[in-house]
Structure formats: C-alpha cells, structure tokens
Specification:
CATH superfamily: STAS domain
Shape: globular
Distance between the termini: 25 Å
Oligomer: single chain
Number of domains: 1
CATH topology: Transcription Regulator spoIIAA
Radius of gyration: 12 Å
Helix content: 25-40%
Number of helices: 4
Strand content: 25-35%
Number of strands: 5
Largest sheet: 5 strands, mixed
Length: 111
Amino acid sequence: MYRYTEQMGVAIVALEGDISMQNAMSLRNWVVDNLIKAGKTKIVFDFSKVGAVDSFGLGTFVSIHKTAVSNGGSIAFASVNENVKKLLSLTALDKVIRTFDSVTDAVSAIR
C-alpha cells in the first residue's frame, strides 16, 4: 500500500494524494506495523506528491509521532507544499514535528 526507502538508517515514506479521513488510519496502521514495530523509528514523510491534509490526517501524524517517540525515534516532514505548511503553522504542529525543504535535509536532521 505504501512504500519506503532507507537512507542512513532513516525510513522515508513517500506519500501520494491527499491525507484524509479516508486513508489516514490505514497509513498509521501501516507505519506502526511495518516500520515502528520493526525497529524503524526514525521516519521522514515525503510530502512532494501530497496536495492536502485534513484534520483527521493531522491527528494521525500526531499519533505516529507519539508512537515513534515512545519507541526512541522521531518523525519529520519533507517537501511540504505551502497550503500544508500554513495548516501546520495554524495548528502549531510545526512546533512538534519538524518540516524540511527536502528529504535529504530531513534525513540529516533526524538520523
């Protein structure tokens, strides 16, 4: 359903389309079951092909963040468009989950 690659011990999850109530829970379950439970707790989400994120999607990322942190990891966002950046700023989620211009920058920061 989702695909990921690894760089320097960091899992990079390439997202596509909008992150919304329709798909956010399956994303969370996939990340927890396939990455975090397997010990891959440093995760970068590549938003380069994401158009929008709704409030349910934001809540899902908060949940993933908490799970990763409680397992000794962290998450970061990369290549977020301006609309999603505004939403992250309005909800102050950008203070909790770091956002980077590129996947390379994000991987370097959390590895």
